[in-house]
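Quick one: structure tokens for this chain, please?
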Amino acid sequence: MPGEASHYKMEPEIRRNWRERIAKNDLEPKRAAVMALFYPFEDTTKLLLILRKTYKGVHSNQIGFPGGKVEQGDRDLLHTALRETEEEVGVPVDAVTVLKKLSEVYIPPSNFLVQPYLGLYQNPLSFTIQEAEVEALVEVSLSDFLDADNEIEQEMRTSYADTITVPAFKLNGYTVWGATAMMLNEIKDLLVKVL
């Protein structure tokens, strides 16, 4: 697994400075899991991302993967990722073929340790968004995702910094940065090896 080597390529400088000062194990992070879901669409392959609703929180109005925090009753992190994916975008748990467990990413602003999974939705039906949490679906073609021209640097305003320059992906007109970009970069590095 490329893991942290892939993550660090998309790591904002403010996060790098934090990482060099603090050990995540000392912070007792909350746990979450997400699903990077690929599926066929016409003559291409797509990756599903979501635009989160605007709310009072550090991940408001950001692009991410379907997924969320561990809840009581979840058997394990994979169950969390699958349950949340069904709740947020309507993909039945038993319709996802889980291909790989990816490398964890710690998110300092919200103190979450996130476990991503790579999944395939082979016979996709219409998605049904959870309107309370999901503003929109962002369906990215595999070719756009792998296109090096879609890797950028951009100035961003955040809940914890007025203006920072971050490495990011520009996908479907959205700037995808932070933990999601770090996870995406590991997926991209894995795919480049096999395609």
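Residues 3-184 form a domain with the Nucleoside Triphosphate Pyrophosphohydrolase fold (CATH 3.90.79.10).
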